[in-house]
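As a warm-up, study this chain.
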Amino acid sequence: MGVFNKFSFIFLVIFLSLSANAEVQRHRFVIQATKVKRLCKTHNTITVNGMFPGPTLEMKNGDTLEVQVVNKARYNVTIHWHGVRQMRTGWADGPEFVTQCPIRPGGSYTYRFTVQGQEGTLWWHAHSSWLRATVYGALIIRPREGKSYPFPKPKRETPILLGEWWDANPIDVVREATRTGAAPNVSDAYTINAQPGDLYKCSSKETTVVSVDSGETNLLRVINAALNQPLFFKVANHKLTVVGADASYTKPFTTSVLMLGPGQTTDVLIRGDQPPSRYYMAARAYQSAQNAPFDNTTTTAILEYKSASCAAKKCNAPTPIMPSLPAYNDTNTVTAFSQSFRSREKAEVPTDIDESLFFTIGLGLNNCPPNFRKRRCQGPNGTRFTASMNNVSFVLPRNFSLLQAHQQGIPGVFTTDFPANPPLKFDYTGNVSRSLFQPVPGTKLYKLKYGSRVQIVLQDTSIVTPENHPIHLHGYDFYIIAEGFGNFDPKRDTSKFNLVDPPMRNTVGVPVNGWAVIRFVADNPGVWILHCHLDVHINWGLAMAFLVDNGVGELQTIQPPPPDLPIC
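Now compare it with the structure written out below.
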């Protein structure tokens, strides 16, 4: 057997052993209006299969997921598989006008992709307008057949989806804000598994209950599916042991409180080690933007010891014990929590950097266009809200998706001149001149060679207001090698880089008035959007996209588009 044949044979054996137990999981998602009653009022809510939250999808590392999405609603829709790497399957990623045109009412599209090397909790959600307010669900990836978790097997597992509810049609809310240029109305409730809980009107009958037995250890898969709000999460009198985040295992650490930005997931073990009773799980806002209105309500679910349940006692169950949540603006708690994350194993962090990028992220204000009436400029001092990265406010195309335009060489849809650095250096977190508040609109991409090693400094600005921004990169996981406050200074801050065991995430909370540094290898060809996961900010343009070139040969080349890819 020649050397080549020998290696081919070994590769084949490895490939066959990996794919031996891989399965194809098939599902059908019907997007439809469903009557949903919350806060005493019934709405025609857009759901998947009439379920709210949508179905939990379960698969193993190595499995393929095939989901036919049928749109029976009156809005365009796409589905994004948040955190799935989508190696060479960019057409299945889902962001509207980035990797596909939307599925029109009456249309359908089948998403097909394989999950490789990821285990833990991800989720799926609509990626079109504000539909993800109600179109979302958990995506659970278990270890391969015969493999186990790197922590003691929990007795039971429960997805905990934190959401946000408007006592209105969310699409109307965002359309009104787009019309007026003002910030959209804040939500009326937060939810746990789509239920607001005992502290809201007309809600306590349906409050989510999570069972636990004395002495057992359970796994909570916590997902922040809220549209616009980072959230604190706590369980009264119980400690939580973090074991994973964004489908990557972490070194275990114990905490009494979690903070998740929208898009983030955190896997925690919880022990039934308290006196049998009923305990509230509660979530409420972490609000880092000063003077900005926000929903200051608290959602609750109940952790109920089986021996304390009414079924066991035939009784009036005791009132659950309430946890004390951090203050809304408790940035110190957020910092301590986010700096506790470490990768479980030594990380393969890219070191010789090919692309060193510096992106400012933040809000802005556009002056009222001369042809607009006053009622269309209801932002501060008669302006319209906007947002940008490196002073470019991202504009999505309307007639083609970016990936389609790239693949087919369609001119005039985008340019590849997104700036690697801010066009102007200034005191990013200081008192910024009003002349820097108005960004330039554009559909600018940044080109990356296949295999290039990338570092991005994400720098918050104090334009309009500083804020903690959850920044999500499609198609990739990345290492968060450092974060801090003030303006990033390479001379001072490079010494803080953790190149040994930094956490791997798909969404990073860039600290309010601060910065975060991420690294990844551009090994997945396609067009991948980097955006703030506060949906209000995406609408305003807080995004950019990478165009990653194909490498050499089939395994480094994006697959051709599927035949049923929607056209615009």
